[in-house]
Write a structure and sequence with these properties.
The protein has helices at residues 80-83, 96-113, 172-181, 222-232, 268-281, 301-309, 322-326, 328-331, 345-351, 376-385, 397-409; strands at residues 13-17, 27-31, 34-39, 46-53, 59-69, 126-127, 141-146, 152-155, 162-163, 187-193, 199-205, 237-240, 244-249, 252-257, 291-295, 314-319, 338-342, 364-367, 389-394, 413-420, 430-436. With 441 residues, the chain is an alpha/beta fold. Bound molecules: S-adenosylmethionine (SAM).
């Protein structure tokens, strides 16, 4: 018997009417009963799309190469690196207010379909952090690379090739300092701007070699590959700026190693702290001395926000990076009120069943996991053990929705969900979801 031929539209140019935004930044279109995920389109446009990735299933992927009927929301791309094919500013062609509407639509769609929150409107509100609506120069943490020629730049979309056109996300002082550092070929470079105006540059060998070829490996394996790379990576060689980076929020100053996590947008840390303070104040039936877990807590940014609202709280900061955890004590007094725990959250929860050592199960949990979210097992444990409120900060609408869905299925009540435009000119959006325990009713 002849095997059925696989559909493969690769290389075909289709004329398509672009529909709504999809999770991941592409826009949906349809052709001959198949979905085409289009990069570089905007809702309502008629465009020519070249198909460049066809797995042969009910969908394929393409890139807009010519716009026949442009959207009024289309703008000249602000980013030369994006125009040259870099993967970062993938919504650089969309006006900022329209981009926030699209991000809010994706957030709402994921919250409804995956998060099982039926009450969400068609689009959730996405606010600019701290009223700071700059589309360029907002990034205070930049990771660049060099190729054979030693010229620093950012990676091409879905490739390990280097684009050396200027990246407009980073504060220009970071680019200047990186170029001045002249780190040589095949380096991974970290440029960080502290709140005191000092720029810190560190570098190490690239562990994922830069090549001319397209990288067609699946996104699903990206987190695993990133972890493997991190474990292979050498130590950062610090070449400019003081050894620690200064960050100030709400009157407290943190001193962090250059590779410790901090929110990349210059106004994000303060803005999220405000949101967390608001969510802590509204937590139902919260005792005056609550047990609080700040999971994936970094250097304790949100622990500080909790203590501002509930000074007698007993906070445990759980964080896997020792570099971040060591910085907790630079801003908060370590003692009975603040206990840093160096652990992966999964292992902390295994050890903490009952949690007698930390005053019992938590009243309040704040979690801010990396892009992949906390996962079903972590969320199931938190749903079971948390008495009052869970505040989930997540930078991927789908994984945030999956995590929230675990709580909703366990009878938790959504008290609010909103977005923050913390990654301008990209499809990325930070979401903050607040849910209340059935035990607190
Ligand atoms: C998005 S950051 C949030 C940090 C902090 N909440 C802040 O705003 O500064 C996520 C943090 O989780 C840490 N992390 C990643 N996976 C982890 C895990 N499985 N367990 C504990 N911490 C983890 C990372 O090192 C990183 O500091």
């Amino acid at each position: 018997m002849t095997p059925p031929t696989r559909t493969d539209w690769t290389g075909r140019v289709l004329r398509l009417r672009i529909e709504g935004p999809a999770q991941g930044g592409e826009f949906v279109a349809r052709h001959s009963g198949r979905v085409v995920f289009c990069r570089g389109g905007i809702t309502g446009e008629l465009a020519e799309v070249v198909i460049d990735d066809d797995p042969g299933r009910a969908f394929c992927r393409g890139t807009v190469t010519r716009v026949l009927e442009p959207s009024p929301d289309r703008v000249d791309p602000v980013c030369p690196a994006a125009a040259a094919g870099a993967g970062c500013c993938d919504w650089s062609h969309i006006g900022p207010s329209a981009a926030r509407v699209f991000a809010g639509t994706v957030l709402a769609d994921q919250a409804r379909r995956i998060g099982r929150i039926q009450s969400v409107p068609d689009r959730l509100s996405v606010e600019v952090p701290g009223g700071d609506d700059a589309t360029t120069g907002w990034r205070t943490v930049a990771r660049w690379v060099t190729g054979d020629d030693g010229v620093p730049g950012v990676r091409r979309s879905r490739s390990r090739e280097v684009v050396t056109h200027p990246c407009v996300q980073a504060d220009p002082r970071i680019g200047e300092a990186i170029r001045a550092a002249g780190v040589g070929p095949h380096r991974e470079i970290l440029g960080v701007l502290g709140d005191d105006g000092q720029v810190h540059v560190a570098h190490r060998p690239v562990t994922d070699p830069v090549s001319r070829g397209r990288d067609r490996r699946s996104r699903r394996g990206a987190a695993t590959r990133a972890r493997a790379r991190a474990s292979r990576a050498g130590r950062w060689e610090h070449v400019s700026g003081a050894p620690t980076v200064s960050r100030t929020v709400g009157g407290r100053t943190w001193r962090l190693p250059v590779d410790a996590f901090w929110q990349a947008h210059r106004s994000a840390a303060a803005h999220y702290s405000d949101l967390v303070r608001g969510a802590v104040s509204g937590a139902p039936a919260l005792p005056g001395d609550p047990v609080v877990w700040d999971l994936y807590g970094g250097a304790g940014l949100f622990s500080a926000a909790v203590l501002d609202v509930v000074p007698r709280a007993r906070v445990t900061v759980v964080e896997s990076s020792r570099a971040s955890l060591e910085a907790v004590g630079s801003a908060l007094e370590i003692g009975p009120a603040v206990v840093p725990v160096a652990s992966r959250v999964e292992q902390f929860l295994e050890r903490s069943s009952g949690a007698a050592d930390r005053g019992g199960d938590p009243d309040l949990v704040i979690l801010d996991p990396p892009r992949g979210g906390a996962g079903i097992e972590v969320m199931t444990a938190l749903a079971r053990g948390t008495a009052s409120r869970i505040i989930h900060v997540g930078c991927d609408p789908a994984s945030l929705a999956r995590d929230v869905g675990v709580l909703v299925s366990a009878g938790w009540t959504p008290a609010g969900i909103q977005g923050v435009a913390a990654f301008p000119a990209t499809h990325h959006v930070e979401g903050l979801a607040v849910l209340d325990s059935p035990r607190a009713r």
